[in-house]
Amino acid sequence: MTGDNAIVTGGARGIGAAIARRFAEEGATVTIGDVLRPEGEELAAGLGEAARFGLLDVTDADSWATVVAEAEAAHGPVSVLVNNAGILQIDSVEDQEPASFRRVTDVNLYGAWLGMHTTIPSLRRAGGGVVINISSTAGLMGYAGLGAYTASKWGLRGLTKTAALELAADGVRVCSVHPGPVRTPMTAEMGEEMVVGQPIARYGTPEEVAATALFIATEATYSTGCEFVVDGGATTGSRILEG
Questions:
Q1: Rounded to an integer, what is the distance from CA 77 to the centroid of its chain?
Q2: Out of 143, 149, 203, 222, which one is annotated catalytic?
Q3: Cα 218 from Cα 130, distance rounded (Å)
């Protein structure tokens, strides 16, 4: 990735931090975009000159404009955008408050759209590049109690395909990544029942998702508009029977 200039949203911890770290290790310059300033600044400092922190609220257009402009000023046009920022709220369709539903979809879906909307001119100035949208297995199937999250991740999957069609002529590839259960601060309260019966019966690691993002950015040059699933086999359609 030497010469690439990347923005990773939700980059201060979890999957985003692992992606930012891996990209920097592979020679890219990385802007870690997040609302978590202390964690983001600490990560950027640890990565040295390859990384910088940008205070980013993905639901705010002015915040996006500032981060993209600063990334360009520091390292030239942006060639890789990773829309990773996301939040989760457990609630039934019946019980979830409207404001809660909107907040989840605003961050997970509108924030990714706003990121692409703002960054596309920079990607063109770079001569092309790649957008990686971090969706979820919740963008491939339903989950009871996660209506807003599931809606946002299905929406992000569809938005990925539309953007891939629109941006192919500019040399910009757009793909989605669909992690299954991964140990991050967002899943810290979830128990082992989440992975019981999976073909690979464990939680994934942020580093495994980062390896997939790196593959998309550097090797998957004939792939666009498609889904990369990193889920331990969770979406294979059946569970392993024991005994």
A1: 20
A2: 149
A3: 9
Q: Domains of the chain by range and CATH?
A: 5-230 (3.40.50.720)
Q: Tokens 């920079």 map to which residue?
A: 122
Residue 239's pLDDT band (boundaries 50, 70, 90)? Answer: low
Tokens of 64: 């996006």
Kindly report the pTM of this predicted structure.
0.95
- CA–CA distances in Å: residue 190 to residues 102, 146, 177: 23, 14, 21
CA dihedral sign of residues 103, 107, 110, 111: positive
Q: Is 149 a catalytic residue?
A: yes
State both tokens at 33: 């975009």
The predicted model gives 50-67 an average pLDDT of 98
DSSP state at residue 131: E
Q: Find all residues with CB under 8 Å of 73, minimum gap 6, and list them.
A: none
β-sheet bridge partners, residue 227: 176
Quickly state the pLDDT bin for 26 (edges 50, 70, 90): very high
Q: Which amino acid is at 156?
A: L
Q: Are 51 and 24 in contact (CB under 8 A)?
A: yes
Per-residue pLDDT reduced to its tens digit, 220-232? 999 999 999 999 9
